[in-house]
Amino acid sequence: MDSVSKLNGPAGSELGTDSEATPNQLGAVDFEVGIIDGDRSINWINSLMFPGKDDGKVSVSRTKVEGMTDHIVIHATHPN
Asked: For position 23, what pLDDT does the model report?
């Protein structure tokens, strides 16, 4: 088991930002969907890895998907 899977479980190994990562293979959504994102991190070390605002696990810019109906950023951490 690799370190990503140990930290994030089996689904963690499917997440990523390269073109082969599962989220990047899904394409645009063709149904109504809204995304709620946080911009508060309690782990400043993790936040150093992300450009711009983040919740300690993912940057705000990476929470958007083509075709989404709505997107809101709240002042909360990822675990909330």
From this structure: 83
Here the tokens at position 7 are 């930290």
**Residue 24 corresponds to which tokens in the numbers above?**
């990047």
For residues 4 and 20, membership in a common domain is answered with yes
Task: Look at the alpha carbons of 24, 79, 57, 12 in this order and tell me if their dihedral is positive or negative.
Answer: negative
| pLDDT, tens digit (0-9, with 9 covering 90-100), for 9-59 | 777 777 777 888 888 888 899 999 999 999 999 988 989 988 899 998 889
**Do 38 and 24 have their domain in common?**
no
Closest to 60 (Cα-Cα) out of 28, 35, 24? 35
